[in-house]
Design a protein that fits this description.
It is globular and about 80 Å long. It has helices spanning 2-23, 30-38, 71-80, 82-85, 104-113, 125-134, 136-140; strands at 48-56, 61-68, 90-92, 98-100, 118-121, 144-148, 163-168, 172-178, 183-190. It has a six-stranded antiparallel beta sheet. Strands 4-6-5 form a three-stranded parallel beta sheet, with no helix packed on it. The chain is 37% helix and 28% strand. By secondary structure, it is α+β, with helices and mostly antiparallel strands.
Amino acid sequence: MYNQTIAAIAIFVIVVCLFLAIFFGLFDNHVKIACGIAGLASVPRNAIVLRSGGWSTGFSNQSCFVFKATKQEIGQWISNSPSLRDNTPDVLSENHRLISFDSFDEMKEWKKRHSNHDLVDTLNGYELVQKSKIYPEYYQNLEIHYYNIPTDPSWFRPNIRKGRLFDISRYYCSVFVDDANNVVWVTASSS
């Protein structure tokens, strides 16, 4: 009788742990999920996935990953990705860069110190790119910085001064290409 009780408790604990692992997405391949949601090609064969993670509730999810590859591999990956190949990126530079903050308070403090700079949420980047196509002379020299506040996963903190920002109009998907370091940051959410 004692062994049966121990076995029943062990089975219960295993089932609960598996349920929690599935709920928190521990068995998910976040690279594959993000590529599927965002309409991206598979990561280049020789690329190194530096980190991946995310979460899923069954009704909504977010998957993020970061990979490093050669300039040629990144260019080919962009060409092979249906949602990127005809997507004009916003070119990031010293006056037009991506900054990640740890919190809204940190972002507000930065904004106080840099009142002459505009901050645009990366989720609104698509609108900014569209406006900059219509009014290129206005937006070209304007000091605009995108900001990113990671929620989950907390490690998703790209800070890019030289690169490209691709906003994908489906769901909440973005691709940040750090051209100085040949690193690509991908985030894709759906609900």
